[in-house]
Amino acid sequence: MISATPFHGKTVLVFGLARSGLKAVEGLVAGGAMVLAADDRPEALKLAAGLGAKPVDWRKQDFKGLAAVVLSPGVPLTHPKPHGVVDKARKAKVEIIGDTEVFARTLQAHTLAPQIIGITGTNGKSTTTSLLGHVLARCGRDAQVGGNIGTGVMGLRPPKANTSYVLELSSYQLDLMHQHKLSAAVLLNITPDHLDRHGRMEHYVAAKARIFRNQGPGDLAVIGVDDAYGQEICTDLVAQNGRTIVPVSVKRVLNRGVYVVNGMLYDAMAGRPERVVDLRSAPALLGAHNWQNAAVAYAVARGLGHASRTIAKALLSFQGLAHRMEVLPEIEGVRFVNDSKATNLDAARQALSALDPIFWIAGGQAKGDDFTEIADILPRVRTAYLIGRDGAKIAEAIKAHTQVQVLETMAEAVRAAFADAKAAIAPLSSAPTVLLSPACASFDQYRDFEHRGDDFRAQVAALTNSQTEVAQG
User: Fold this and answer.
1) 125 catalytically annotated
2) Averaging pLDDT over each range in 29-33, 215-219, 271-275, which range is the top one?
3) Of these residues, 10, 54, 178, 194, which one is catalytic?
4) What pTM was computed for the model?
5) Residue 461 burial (CB < 10 Å; 0-12/13-18/19+)?
6) Which entry of 23, 83, 123, 148 is annotated as an active-site residue?
7) Is there a catalytic annotation at residue 79?
8) What pLDDT does 470 receive?
9) All structural domains of the chain
10) Does residue 134 have an active-site annotation?
């Protein structure tokens, strides 16, 4: 746990007491702050009180004298409209920040000055964050991973002489960061998402671009340039000429930067390209989107001074993350891939691009995507099995391009997909894959994407048990 010493002797209100909020309470109390805690859930207030905070009703609380309001990233800051606590803080001219800003200010004041690396993007943040943490650990760093993935930032260990903090940062968290200065900042990609919280696309792009704010000479910026937004941000940063900038592409050769061609990663950071590693040999990094994640992790580690050979070995030894192109045990020649984290169409497109032939399970709460936009890639899909609230609507959009089945449950979809994939093995030239890549949110049927992915795993495991029983019978 990290003590938030910059707030020693000050009064701070923490609003929103989920995982990161409670860690913020703990760190602020340890740093000597007077912490007021507010939440609509009595059980959360009780937990905060146990950590040394004073539970309050924010509606009745006088905001005069507060040094800051530490806001949960899940609380609306601007859209669809500001939460009442935001309005009250603004009227009282109290600074509104997040736990990641508390963390950044605390570490900037630390005598050891550890590396702080931030990673954002619409897709691939969690995989890249975990992958980079793995790479840096293999390079001998005390790599600690947190933020929007895993541990709340204030719950990470205090720094040592060789500590690197690798943080996944959402657009919501970046909106609450002001004085942060990252040793290395990463923007993977930008596609439309979370517009209910940002209002317009330009607001969402601006939130992502905040990750580079306050950087200067000696700092590192790594930017995916395969979408127009990333390319424009990269151009703007080059014009500022204040840091080391490394563009990354998996779609084209770059004169300078890091790029991937047909799975081969090239380092052209010094201008002359050098072959580094064949990412097709990395079992946990299937597909071009994971090649981008690997190229970014390589660019950061190399930009921080680590040896390319050590980085390459680390990329190949990465085991991957649950629910993100997670390869499950094969059954009777059929491969299963759990990509439940693919909650929008762009993420699902990336998964569909990595495999062929596919028996595709999708559906849930659609985010307004036009599913006809993936018509070009649907020839890879032998049959789509659509479940959830918007399954029938998705089936209607894609039925002209592939076979569809509209089903009720994950169990039905897995059984149907397995039966069809197994029946197709003989005429196919390569092993078929049953792919869960929903392209939708999960909340119509599940608590979250993890719950959905766990159900997929359980249904696949049930197939194994069923096959065993048949063999024994």
Assistant:
1) yes
2) 29-33
3) 194
4) 0.83
5) middle
6) 148
7) no
8) 46
9) 5-97 (3.40.50.720), 100-317 (3.40.1190.10), 326-472 (3.90.190.20)
10) no
